[in-house]
């Protein structure tokens, strides 16, 4: 998957309704929505969740075509998740037999639920990152977890780690794309190889990818030290977050949506 199609962790500037919401509303809504997805099993609840995610993405103003391009790599993992359910779940009514291998109702429908749930989680997480700056996510996480500081939980450090981890996702995709291009320049065309050999070739790229990631992390640590970052010290924010009536209404609608999903 090309780096420019890696949306998760990449911010896309805009002035849409979702972009202008308070980061705390988006983070809290995404968190509660994710919890609700693991609590539902009915098809009607999944349909409501899908409509909500589609509406949120439409209000973000980000092109659907860009989102569809990110499904290429995700589709491989979704297929693996589905096959694991089909192969290992051997309960329920037998639906069909393929090459002397019976497929059971619980395995097939359970696999579909896993795929549907994972896809919605991915889109919701992508919607959060493409409409919210990493710094805003860090501040929102720190504000929401502020009560944990009384229990001596390093909230600020955890928020920073979360922000850096999200931001590194597209960076790792760019590094992987550079290594694939280098292999292609040496005559190794990964796309033209059989599936088994393709997986083996990609696995060989994991070691240099890890080395480059550690190098990037070291450079980031040095840059933070040069700018006077000290863990545990209080830091002020240049841009203050403002909570408006629209944020309150959006959060209330999110709660209503989650209650409806769980009750279906």
Mind telling me the C-alpha Rg? Answer: 22 Å
List the uncertain runs.
none
DSSP strand (E) fraction? under 5%
Number of folding domains? 1
Instruction: Give the overall shape, derived from the CA principal axes.
Output: globular
Overall pLDDT: 78
Task: Please give the count of helices.
Answer: 10
Q: Give the N-terminus to C-terminus distance in angstroms.
A: 37 Å
Which bin fits the share of residues in helices? Answer: 55-70%
Could you spell the SSE succession in H and E letters?
HHHHEEHHHHHH
Summarize, please:
This protein is mainly α. It is built from 10 helices and 2 strands; from the N terminus they run ααααββαααααα. The longest helix is centred in the middle third of the chain and has 31 residues, at 155-185.
Write a concise keyword list for the protein shown above.
mainly alpha, 264 residues, transmembrane, 10 helices, ABC/ECF_trnsptr_transmembrane, cell membrane
